[in-house]
Amino acid sequence: MKPRGSPGLWLILAGVLTVSLFPVVSDNAAMREVLFSVLLAITLASSLNIILGYTGYISFGHVVFFGLGGYVGLYLISAYGASLWVALPAAGAAGALLAFLLGKAILRLRGSFFALATIGVNEAMRALFNNLPRFGGSTGIALNFSVYEAYGGATRALWLAYGLMIALTLAILLISYRTKTSKFGLGLMAIREDEDAAEVLGVVTPTAKTWAYVLSAIMPAMAGVLYYFKNSSIEPNDAFQLSFSIELLVMVMLGGSGTVLGPVLGAAGYQLLRNSLLISPFFKNSQLVVSGVVLLLIILFIPVGAVGWLRRRFPRLRKTLI
Amino acid sequence: MQYVVDGLLIGCVYGLAAMGMTLIWGVMDVINMAHGVLIALGSFGMYLLFTNLGINPYLGVVLAGAGGLLLGIGIYRVAIRRVLDTSHLSTLLATFAVNMILVGLGTAAFSTNPRAVDVNLGSLTIGSVTVQTTRLVAALASILIAGALYLFLNRTSPGKFIRAITNNRNAAEIVGIHSQRMLALSFGLGCMLATLAGGLIATFFPFSILSGDTYQVKSFIIVVLGGLGNPLGALVGGLILGLLEGIVPAFLPISWVPVIEFVLFILILIVKPTGLFGGKE
Amino acid sequence: MKSKSVAPILLALITSLLLNACAAPDTAQPTAEVDGVRVTIGFTVSKTGSLNVESTRQTNGLNLWMKQVNDAGGIKLKDGTVVSFDAKYYDDQSSKGSVQQLYTRLATKDNATFLISPYSSGLTDAAAVIAEQYGKIMITTGAASDSTYKRGFTLVYQAYTPASRYLTGAVDLLKDTDPSAKKIAILHENDKFSTDVCNAVRDYAVDQGYEVVFFEGYDTGTTDFAPFINKMESTAPDAILGGGHFQDGSTFAKQLYEKQLPVKLVALLVAPPESTFAEIGDAAIGIIGPSQWETQESYSAETAQKVNLPFYGPSSAEFTSSYKATYGEDPSYHAAGGYAAGLILQNAIETAGSLDPGRVKAALDAMNILTFFGRFQFSVSPEDHGLQIGHSMVYIQWQEDSSAALGKQSVWPAEVAAAEIVYPLR
């Protein structure tokens, strides 16, 4: 009989929800903005974890789904006056479609080749959008401020976007958990450990990998719509920023890849670290160096990340630290 | 015709830059994500030697290369050695972390103000084609260095040892080759090639600590085109890329060139991952 | 190092960094102690990243204004309160994402009453949204793109001449100097600002009867212009217009010279008015560039009287000397723009006699003044509210004087020209 959901899952969900509600309760816009960026990071990192942590495929260009989602969403909003309720699922579908098509093409590549291919895809998308006049070319799409009227004004629109972001985050955490505890997830992890052996044992690897990739693309695309809706403009160089992809990788590794809690801790920790470095007069010049040193130390000495380390150190908590 | 010549000349330098990456990848299956910043550091090395000590730019390039070799060996010892055979992700992220550290230090030291070295050697006109002498010299230097690398790998003992560990590290160790030393040397050589390319680029383009990124991405494309671990293939790959960049603008707006480059990149990966000239799988 | 000992070290490092989050943001130099209200002006500076040179100059200008206002005792409101200013700023790293996060912080947590834009149209576009979303008045400077003002904002006001009128003077200049010239080639950086400027120039040139034989964009950060120059050469243009920012503009000019492309007039954005443009040596000779302001401009109370406008603030000479005394170098137009933004705000608050956003906005809407920087008046029509309609560009050209030293001379429009234009180039 399948368990209803481990205590660890409920703890994570409750924790995320409680913290996210702080700014709502205290009507604090500054805190809301910080938490929005944290929730965004958690959503993206958890999505990446599905293809990276569970399946073992290194997606270096995961930001491509985020950017594509943002573009599709803003295009629908600006050209067709679509509402968020239309733009969000449309973007999700677009992300899933891209992942499906890409998956067919590049998932047969192994290791570094796959990683490089994802970089190539991201850069190709960026160069492509730079050239398409329909999507604004190099200057991108900018929304007219009146777009916010439909949601009761800018302030309410911002809160709405935040609420939706909370919903997306909770959704991806649930998806991540269900994937991990399902037979599908078991197949993915088998692929991660030894793809050939998995095939021999009956896992239909191409299908499984493709579905993992598709699953990992939907949330980033929808998150992209929310983020760019808030910013009210999008351009190719920002939407497909490779360095953002790399930051997602760092978050997953930092927290512990292949776990549900890992991306949460990693994303939250990294974003908070980054924010504090950004505004600190002492550290801001050395933000990159400090992040690099932290990353290097993690890779060299604690590659299993925070959650992995905690699980080793406190074996009794393993049931909760999923 | 002008297009072709310009493209080929710049292609030689691209090829030189890519050779460093393909060497490291071939020998130890590590993608050096710090490749770009090493190119930029090569440019800065040459610039500093020229501006502060008045050293001839081309001599400066050589010295920058030597610095790159030592820095590369250092990076290997500190960051790569421990994670060498663990997983692709670990080595990728390790070199990326090195990249972040170097870019951060470089920005703190040099800021992101673009610098330029004024090397004026005039230009040569042959028929309907005018070329900047600096670019010509850089292209020739790249070919020379490629040749030297080939000789090193095939005619000298350390070179042969490197090829041995590339081929089969365990077997090489059994016959007494000190693999860690050779690995460090290979990494150092890869970095040296990057800094040499950077120094040469600085003789005719402006640069900043961030300008290496474009060359890193081009290096990815070239390495895949030319075949993993195949230095000569990298040079040819560079020429192809340079040719593309030179000729396509005659038919399309230039902003389509990157799209074509990346689509080509993905196609090669899917269709013939061993590259056009074959290499390690 | 064993795994076990690294973790606590990492933990300590991360904790100390997080504690640093309590650190206060940057503030400007200590300001004069005045009785009354301290108003916070929020903005970001590109201390790192590609825009850092120009952004620092703009901030210097703004800080100089703030210091002078505070030293003079602040602004007196109608009800007698004296207002002095505090600056709160962060490093936006020349990145759009950072800009939005930081301006949100400035508008909410740091309680900035007024906002000044970052440098560059791209970053300003991102910041303007935040200003409007949180109901804060923002004066933009260092940002010329028109498109920002077509997005339905009501609280954003532009100090610079907009992109649509940025380079059009070069076409006028060409027409006036050589009526026989017919073909124009335009090459622009693919960023918001340069694209907007060059789209406007192309439309204007076609309007004026020219043939635009080449029109392409290059990626930000391009260093190799050979493919573009080769392509341009085959179209045999009389004039080349365009460019982007300082780095690419200088490189382009240099490579044009190296290739000895036969062209009669070259006018580039942003780069030529910089004094460091001369570093490319002979390649700079004859290159023309539009500037928002030059030290040679002599707007003063007298000129204001002639056009029946009130004159506000210091004269060009006064500004130049106080800037030089504070920062040790001559001010560029970015610095002047930064100072002018402060001046606009000051004038609006004084006219309104209050800090109430509604009153200040009304004062801005009605503003029509002459300053050392030029005339300021804002459009109030809903399609482009806040667009600068009073200010125009002055064109400079690098010329060799009798002792073969390079210097910039203003050559257009005729009212402010200090020298004859050198034509043709080659």
Please provide a brief summary of the model.
The complex is a heterotrimer of chains A (322), B (281) and C (426). Chain A is mostly helical and 322 residues long. Chain A has helices at 7-26, 29-54, 63-80, 84-106, 111-131, 154-181, 183-193, 195-200, 205-231, 236-239, 242-255, 261-279, 287-301, 305-313; strands at 141-142, 233-234.
Describe the fold and architecture.
The complex is a heterotrimer of chains A (322), B (281) and C (426). Chain A is an all-alpha fold. Chain A has a single domain (7-319), classed as ABC transporter involved in vitamin B12 uptake, BtuC (Orthogonal Bundle), CATH 1.10.3470. Chain A contains 14 helices and two strands, in the order αααααβααααβααααα. In chain A, helix 1 packs antiparallel against helix 2 (29-54), helix 2 (29-54) crosses helix 11 (242-255) and helix 6 runs antiparallel to helix 9. Chain A is globular and about 55 Å long. In chain A, 59% of the residues are buried. By secondary structure, chain B is mostly helical. Chain B has a single domain (2-271), classed as ABC transporter involved in vitamin B12 uptake, BtuC (Orthogonal Bundle). Chain B has helices spanning 2-28, 35-53, 57-80, 88-110, 133-155, 157-167, 169-174, 179-202, 212-226, 231-247, 257-271; strands spanning 123-126, 129-132. Chain B has a two-stranded antiparallel ribbon with strand order 1-2. In chain C, a hairpin with a 5-residue loop joins strand 3 (75-76) and strand 4 (82-91). In chain C, helix 3 runs parallel beside helix 4 (121-133) and helix 11 crosses helix 12 (357-366). The longest helix of chain C has 20 residues, at 52-71. The termini of chain C are far apart.
How is the topology of this model organized?
The complex is a heterotrimer of chains A (322), B (281) and C (426).
Chain A: H1 7-26, H2 29-54, H3 63-80, H4 84-106, H5 111-131, E1 141-142, H6 154-181, H7 183-193, H8 195-200, H9 205-231, E2 233-234, H10 236-239, H11 242-255, H12 261-279, H13 287-301, H14 305-313
Helix pairs in contact in A: 1-2, 1-6, 2-6, 2-9, 2-11, 2-12, 3-4, 3-9, 4-9, 6-7, 6-9, 7-9, 11-12, 11-14, 12-14
Chain B: H1 2-28, H2 35-53, H3 57-80, H4 88-110, E1 123-126, E2 129-132, H5 133-155, H6 157-167, H7 169-174, H8 179-202, H9 212-226, H10 231-247, H11 257-271
Antiparallel strand pairs in B: 1-2
Chain C: H1 3-19, E1 26-27, E2 37-45, H2 52-71, E3 75-76, E4 82-91, H3 96-107, E5 114-116, H4 121-133, E6 137-140, E7 156-158, H5 168-177, E8 183-189, H6 192-207, E9 211-218, H7 226-233, E10 239-243, H8 246-259, E11 265-268, E12 288-291, H9 301-306, H10 316-327, H11 333-352, H12 357-366, E13 368-371, E14 374-377, E15 394-400, E16 406-412
Parallel strand pairs in C: 2-4, 2-5, 5-6, 6-7, 8-9, 8-10, 10-11
Antiparallel strand pairs in C: 1-4, 3-4, 12-15, 13-14, 15-16
Helix pairs in contact in C: 2-11, 3-4, 11-12
